[in-house]
Amino acid sequence: MRELNLGTLKRAIEGNDAATLSGLFAENAMLRIVDSIHPPSHPLDLKGRKKIAEFYADVCGRGVTHHVADMVSGDGHLAFTEECEYPGGAKVFCSAMLDVDKDGRITREVMVQAWDDDER
């Protein structure tokens, strides 16, 4: 299995680089989001690189600052935490777990997030 380049992932997230970020996903990848709008019984499931790219283009276009921390990887998995801040000061915390295939592409990401207010 090829290892996903953690530096590239971190730079893409922190640099609001939606194109690079979505390019790290396999064509048939799935992104699951759990938050107050999408509870565990009804998560938001985005299937396919195209839908994931649309999501990250929206997120990266909001002027939010992102800081990735606590990255760990091993045996086809990667996890990290992310602290974000909107221009108005609202903060978001995210914890993510990713599955990576033998080619080093993300096949599945599960993201759990919480935010200060209704900045989403």
From TrEMBL:
Entry-linked InterPro entries: NTF2-like_dom_sf (IPR032710), SnoaL-like (IPR037401)
Domain SnoaL-like: 12-108
Top-rank taxon: Bacteria
One Pfam family linked to the record: SnoaL_2
Protein name stated in the entry: SnoaL-like domain-containing protein
Organism of provenance: Terrihabitans soli
